[in-house]
Every structure is written in C-alpha cells, then in structure tokens.
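Example 449, ligand adenosine-5'-diphosphate.
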Amino acid sequence: MFDKILIANRGEIALRVIRACREMGIASVAVHSTADTDAMHVRMADEAVCIGPPPGTDSYLSIPAIIAACEITGAQAIHPGYGFLSENSNFVQIIEDHELTFIGPTAEHIRVMGDKISAKDTMKALGVPCVPGSAGGVPTLEDAQRIGEEVGYPVIVKATAGGGGKGMKVAQTAADMESAFMTARAEGKSNFGNDEVYIEKYLTTPRHIEIQVFGDGKGRAVHLGERDCSLQRRHQKVFEEAPGPSISPEERAAIGKTCSDAVAKINYIGAGTIEFLYENGEFYFIEMNTRLQVEHPVTESIFGVDLVREQIRVAAGLDMSFIQEDLHINGHSIEVRINAEKLPNFTPCPGRITQYHAPGGLGVRMDSALYDGYSIPPYYDSLIGKLIVHGRDRPEALARLNRALGELIVDGIDTTVPLFHALLQEPDVLSGEYNIHWLEHWLETNLGG
Ligand code: ADP
C-alpha cells in the first residue's frame, strides 16, 4: 500500500480523497494555487505544496508542477479527483514514466473513452446498446445532411472531444443542420482543440441513467447499479438519485451485467461510469467517464461502500474488497449540487462566506470545503457543496432532503439552494416522473431563465 498520496485537485473532492487516505493510514499531500492558500483542502492535508498562480492552466492543470510536488514530498501516487487532469491520458503517461502511480484507469482506456466516437465503437463491439447515428465522424456538411435524412430528424451533432455539455447542437429539422453542424464543430475546436463531430438520433423524452462500474485491472469487474441524473440544466446535472425511480430490479441486473462484463473484458481498472439515455424501456449508450463522478456519493450511500478507498486499493495492486454478490441496495439516496450562483440566471457568485452551517443528523452527508469566513475565489467551478441524503425509501429521502436544506446556512453569497426548495414542492419531482428536459421547461416557466 502507498505511504503517501498527492491529490491533484481542490475543493470538496480533494477533501473527499484526503478523508479516505486518513482512514487508510495514508499521508496526504494537497497542491494549491496562490488563490487557494486558505482553502480547506490545504488545511486538512498532512502537507501542502503551492504549484502556481490562480488560472487552472498555471497550477491545477500544470503537469510539471504536479510531478515536481510529488518528487519534493515523496508521494508515490496521484489521485486526480474529477475535472482538471482526471481524464488526461497524457498526464497518466507522464506519471507512469516517472514511476509514480495514477489512481485511475490506464492511459489507453482514458484515450479510447475520451474520444466519443472510439468510445462508442468500443462499447458497441462489447455488446453495449448505443444511440443510432453516424458510423464515426462526419467530415462535411453534405455528409451531415445525408445522415440527418437517414437517421431521421431531430438529430444531435456532437463534438467527439466534447464534455461538460459543450459541443452539442440539436437540429430539429433539415433546415437547422447547417447551423448545428457549424456550431458543434466550432465549439469542439475552441473548447477541446478538435473539430471532429458525429451525429446521433436526438431522443425526445429520455432519462439519463448511468451505471457505476468498478474493475480490478485483472479481468474482474462489478457494477453498483444506476444513478438517475435526468434533472439537468444546459446538459449539466443538478440533482441525482439512486436507485433510479424508473428502473426495475430486472432491468438493473441486466444492464448492470452488460456493463460489468464489458469493462471486465477490457481489464478496466478503477471506477468508471457508463452513461445511457433511457427511453421506452431501452438503454442507449452515450459516453463513458473514466473517473470518479461528482455524484458518486449516492451510490456509496445505498451500497455502503467507499469508492475512493476501492480506487486506492486496486491502484496499489490489491483486490476490490467486494464481489458482485456482496453488493446489495439499501434504501434510497439523493444528491443536490449546491453552486455559488445567483438565480434566475445562474450567474457565478463568488465572494466571502460570512456564515456557514452544515446540516447533520441521521442519513445526511455534506461534502463541502466551505467554512466561516472563507472567500470563494472567482477562478474555478461554482460547485461549493454537495448535500447527500439517505433514507429507507424515496419518500423518506425526499423528506430528509427538505429537512436538511432547511438547516443549511450559507450566508454572504447567493447559492442554488432556493432552486431545490422549489423543486421539492413539485409533484413530478416528488413522484420521480421527469426526463432530461423537465428542468429546462420548469426553469422557463418558473424563473423565465
Ligand atoms: P457531455 O460529455 O458534454 O456530458 P454527453 O454525451 O454525456 O455529453 O451528454 C450530456 C447530456 O446531453 C445527456 O445527459 C443528455 O441530456 C443530452 N444528450 C446527449 N446525447 C443525446 C441524444 N442523442 N439525445 C438526446 N439528448 C442527448
């Protein structure tokens, strides 16, 4: 087992990893930018190294600075969290070249899954059901128009390198194709340095269902059921739950096995998420994330496992501490993402926290790096906390979420908490009847945003 792990991240996910390290008796090293000198992850880690100025590219994304921090502190392994360098295959290769260990999948798996076209081809070959669409990249507008007719409108044009909801454009009819094609290409180019796009059938009322998988790199893998992340704004998740209200035990067992078999076959190592759209009882693969997800705590809550601990174990060459037969669902869990944003337009709202009080009590988990007097810097993602609740069933989890939101105090800035208070009044949210468009429609009607 490692003696010391460096966490190449910040905020709540850095704390999450530090906590797992501490329980395992492993020393932790935080890295930070000059804007984060007073951040909680710096205080909580055993050691901290300043790796550069505030912009991500000069610090949290600076591979030489992170490798140097490992060498200075003697850390043997790097946990990337999510975002930043977590899905950068070049980073993984450099870590391996320095005889350090990356806590995550191999560079090759990250590369294959990071490109949405090669991910889809790979999954298709492994027997995973995919959204109908173009066979690979679509080089010209004429090709796009032909494929639009073949697949049937509406279609979605997606940048193969896209992520975080960027680089996707819907063409409702043939008349929209030129602008969708050009915009998706331009966004792919400007955000990800790659203008290749592909086309999929646009599903009109799907839910977003993702399967948590975990592999040991030696041909064994398990699944930990699904998360329903259909409540999204601009293709970004805001509310996640497990198990999915629309998924039967039989469906879970079947799609779960398809996914765990697929990753076992490729000797996948560590945590991964296979994302699907789910409509009329059918699953359609959209992408695989080769890292721990923001919403992993809902899975941890219902299965009673620590996914970060498992990531560290398999990276150190140990076995997973469970097999499929050990994994049973207990109750229901919901996570809401609390962002430093001002409604109705979700404008980023950094600033000083004058008062912070985290909710507590039975079945409540607050993953956040906030504290009284902390100043949220303007340079990073606006996620400032995740409130996760667990109940014996969905109604109990909803009641607990309502109660916990009422206890939470974040003063000094605006947050997305009022959105969740409002959503918990909605019959569709209470009954679990929503699809990926529900929240956008609700926001238009209720916030005009
Ligand atoms: P990203 O990598 O940017 O997160 P994804 O491919 O995972 O992109 O898609 C994100 C979201 O976009 C999905 O959860 C869904 O809401 C929407 N989406 C993606 N593909 C389709 C599709 N074929 N039909 C309808 N909606 C889609």
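Summary: The mean pLDDT is 97.
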